[in-house]
């Protein structure tokens, strides 16, 4: 069956949908790509003439947007019309962990996926390929299929009936390097049952990706591979973080251990950086999902194994607060502490599951007054994450629990401790001589990412704690 894809749309203009569709538009000038979202403000932001206002910060994304937007890349809220004229529809809506009901705390909430499938069922016309981009529990494709078919069954005449083909095409991009990951992926995974639909999607990717990197599997393998890849990556981080604790007790150095084990080809050197714990929208959610699936299918031992990865991640975050309190003479009440970095990793403005959130809340609970600086995270986002308004805070200056700083220098004024939580480049070469003119002595530097220039810091008599040594 021959079927040329001329128009595609994507429901969900988030961290995955936005950059992924931008790269497809960039690489396939003959295809019209529209990114849809129910959140009209988000769409306005994607259409903002000032590219620094785009809702997602990713290096290289603004250049693509300025090349393609309003040429073959569009951002719109007109879901009905776009679905009806698209040959291929990507689903890239969020799938957070359920907060109530069966599977609360572990299973993914699929209400947005279901709602999107219903919209597709209602408005799609003719042959339509539906592509799962969101990370989903295994066998979600079946749910989507049932919804699409049920709507079809309601249609009376044969001519009005649609033909739907469902594919799983999980996205492996990491935030901060999304554009490079999309341009040069290690592999593209397409899970499906229908040869013609798989070929149609593969053809899009073949515009810039070698065919040998495009892997075809069945639907369930594809869905499970995404969960497994994220679980393995997170497991490496928990493994190295667990050893960082042991290094601190024994006098070994975690950077040296990482290097030594990473040179073993069987282990490999990537994803071995100890830090304040993994964050991001995927790792925790996907492991919880895996745990839920294992329990559901009667594999509690497997569920327990993966639960350990999450427990170590929580331990890593909470022990950091304990160390800070202990080093600052057992109390941080009324003490000023600088927080350098709030995003869950560098080169993104995303704070979902950022270790900074729990660490800042714990420090505030201990009575500290925080001065928070991040090059890309807005004050408003921090307010939401800490569930506390900076403005309210500032009204009564005695009760101030956190303050939004616009520079490293401002954040570190008068502080007893400086905590580096994100590995932003600008924290690697801090002018400690300048900073130390304004801090309270003794000043402690807590480097949870092992990125600071400690020789320079030592010259200024900073007391130093670095993770894993
Ligand atoms: C994606 C995936 O969808 C998720 O499953 C994966 O694990 C992480 O990446 P992401 O793009 O990071 O999520 O999420 P987010 O930035 O929250 O974007 C989702 C967008 O979908 C939001 O803008 C939201 O408004 C939109 N949405 C949600 C719809 O347009 N329709 C809906 O019905 C629900
Ligand atoms: C991850 C996966 O890498 C990606 O394939 C998937 O599509 C989505 O989830 P992301 O969460 O964007 O991507 O970033 P990633 O680079 O994987 O980092 C996740 C967390 O692990 C961050 O908090 C990061 O700081 C931490 N991390 C990563 C470490 O602590 N040490 C490392 O060595 C690597």
Task: Describe this protein's structure.
This protein has about 475 residues and is an alpha/beta fold. The protein is built from 18 helices and 14 strands. The strands form two sheets. The chain has an eight-stranded mixed beta sheet, with helices on both faces. A six-stranded parallel beta sheet has the order 11-10-9-12-13-14. Helix 5 links the parallel strand 4 and strand 5. Helix 1 crosses helix 3 and helix 9 packs parallel to helix 12. The chain is globular. The model has no long low-confidence stretch (mean pLDDT about 95). The structure holds uridine-5'-diphosphate-xylopyranose (2 copies). The site of one uridine-5'-diphosphate-xylopyranose has 22 residues, from helix 5.
Structural class: alpha/beta
Number of helices: 18
Question: What is the CA-based Rg, rounded?
Answer: 24 Å
Order of strands, main sheet, comes to 3-2-1-4-5-6-7-8
Main pleated-sheet profile: 8 strands, mixed
- What small molecules does the structure contain? uridine-5'-diphosphate-xylopyranose
> Tell me, what's the shape?
globular
What's the rounded overall pLDDT mean? Answer: 94
Distance between the termini: 61 Å
* Uncertain residue segments: none
Strand content: 5-15%
Count of strand segments: 14
* Share of residues in helices: 40-55%
């Amino acid at each position: 069956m021959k079927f040329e894809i001329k128009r595609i749309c994507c429901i969900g203009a988030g961290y995955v949908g936005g950059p992924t569709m931008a790269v497809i538009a960039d690489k396939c000038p003959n295809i019209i790509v529209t990114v849809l979202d129910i959140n009209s403000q988000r769409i306005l932001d994607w259409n903002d003439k000032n590219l620094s206002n785009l809702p997602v910060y990713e290096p290289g994304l603004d250049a693509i947007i300025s090349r393609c937007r309003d040429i073959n890349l569009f951002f719109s809220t007109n879901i009905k019309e776009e679905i009806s004229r698209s040959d291929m529809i990507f689903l890239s809506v969020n799938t957070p962990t359920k907060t109530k009901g069966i599977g609360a705390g572990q299973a993914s909430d699929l209400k947005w996926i279901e709602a999107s499938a219903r919209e597709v069922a209602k408005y799609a016309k003719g042959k339509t390929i539906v592509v799962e981009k969101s990370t989903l529990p295994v066998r979600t494709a079946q749910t989507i299929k049932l919804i699409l078919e049920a709507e079809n069954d309601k249609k009376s005449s044969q001519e009005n009936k649609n033909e739907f083909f469902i594919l799983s095409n999980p996205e492996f991009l990491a935030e901060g390097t999304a554009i490079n990951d999309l341009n040069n992926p290690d592999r593209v995974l397409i899970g499906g049952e229908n040869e013609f639909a798989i070929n149609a999607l593969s053809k899009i990717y073949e515009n810039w990706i070698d065919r040998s990197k495009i892997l075809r599997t069945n639907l369930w393998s594809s869905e499970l591979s995404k969960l497994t890849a994220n679980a393995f990556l997170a497991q490496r981080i928990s493994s190295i973080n667990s050893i960082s604790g042991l290094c601190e007790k024994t006098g070994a150095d975690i950077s040296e251990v990482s290097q030594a084990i990473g040179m073993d080809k069987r282990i490999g050197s990537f994803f071995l950086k100890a830090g304040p714990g993994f964050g991001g929208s995927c790792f925790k959610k996907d492991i919880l999902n895996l745990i839920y699936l294992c329990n559901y299918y009667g594999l509690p031992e497997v569920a327990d194994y993966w639960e350990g990865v999450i427990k170590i991640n929580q331990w890593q975050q909470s022990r950091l607060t304990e160390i800070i309190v202990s080093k600052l003479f057992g109390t941080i009440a009324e003490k000023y502490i600088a927080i350098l970095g709030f995003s869950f990793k560098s080169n993104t403005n995303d704070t979902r599951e950022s270790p900074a959130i729990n660490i800042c809340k714990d420090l505030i609970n201990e009575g500290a007054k925080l001065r928070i600086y991040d090059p890309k995270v807005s004050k408003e986002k921090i307010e939401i994450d800490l569930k506390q308004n900076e403005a309210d805070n500032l009204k009564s200056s005695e009760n101030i629990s956190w303050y939004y700083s616009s520079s490293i220098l401002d954040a570190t004024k008068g502080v007893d401790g400086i905590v580096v939580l994100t590995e932003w480049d600008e924290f690697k070469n801090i002018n400690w001589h300048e900073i130390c003119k304004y801090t309270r002595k003794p000043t402690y530097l807590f480097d949870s990412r092992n990125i600071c220039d400690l020789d320079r810091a030592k010259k200024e008599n900073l007391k130093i704690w670095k993770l894993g040594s």
